[in-house]
Design goal:
heterodimer; A: 115 residues; mainly beta; globular; B: mainly beta; 6-stranded mixed beta sheet; 4-stranded antiparallel beta sheet
Chain lengths: 115, 117
């Protein structure tokens, strides 16, 4: 039971390079999310996808693009990486539950460093 | 927009003792959900406990309980009989009940808990 799987776990980029973070979930969840975690700032939502075929901006979308490839997969792309994008990135998924809380399940995180 | 504040960047507790982590939030909504997540050194985010705002009874999960004060917009986490494995970063999070799509969370800044043997 893998849950939410993110790759890669670690990546070092040079300023201006591009890369894609991959995320897949095997829980048949409708909604998926990308958060970034920075010291002293908690987790902030970059983009989310409420269902297959839809994506919406979160709190800090600038410099990122996303693709909801299918129900399982939700990728995050940095087209031209900047040092300000050095962070730990988390993918998460959720589905409707009877309580309405729709608890998120998180991946293990991807540490990205932009030099 | 909702905000979540954790005013204690770091806390420490002796093993077997009790510790309380504070969280306050700002919202104009009456229905919402509150969560505490734990992030150990492995980085994995783990749900500790959740509270529905419409429930007056405080949530409890084994050694973890909350003190939910809706009028004061306060949501503290109490850890009883602290164990070494409780050492982690703890995040308080808010989710609006009115969301029609997805389950976007607003997180606090986190509190780093150290458990001393």
């Amino acid at each position: 039971n893998a849950g939410v799987t993110q790759t890669p776990k670690f990546q070092v980029l040079k300023t201006g390079q591009s890369m894609t973070l991959q995320c897949a979930q095997d829980m048949n969840h409708n909604s998926m999310y990308w958060y970034r975690q920075d010291p002293g700032m908690g987790l902030r939502l970059i983009y989310y996808s409420a269902s297959e075929g839809t994506t919406d901006k979160g709190e800090v979308p600038n410099g990122y693009n996303v693709s909801r490839l299918n129900k399982r997969e939700f990728s995050l792309r940095l087209e031209s990486a900047a040092p300000s994008q050095t962070s730990v990135y988390f993918c998460a998924s959720s589905d409707d539950d009877s309580s309405g809380a729709n608890v998120l399940t998180f991946g293990a995180g991807s540490r990205l460093t932009v030099l | 927009a909702q905000t979540v504040t954790q005013s204690q960047p770091e806390m420490s507790v002796q093993e077997a003792e009790t510790v309380t982590l504070s969280c306050t939030y700002d919202t104009s909504e009456s229905d919402y959900y509150l969560f505490w997540y734990k992030q150990p050194p492995s980085r994995q985010m783990i749900l500790v406990i959740r509270q529905e705002a419409y429930k007056q009874q405080n949530a409890t999960e084994n050694r973890f309980s909350v003190n939910f004060q809706k009028a004061a917009k306060s949501f503290s986490l109490k850890i009883s009989d602290s164990q070494l494995g409780d050492a982690a970063m703890y995040f308080c999070a808010y989710r609006s009940e009115g969301e029609t799509s997805g389950s976007r969370l607003t997180f606090g800044e986190g509190t780093q808990l150290t458990v001393n043997p």
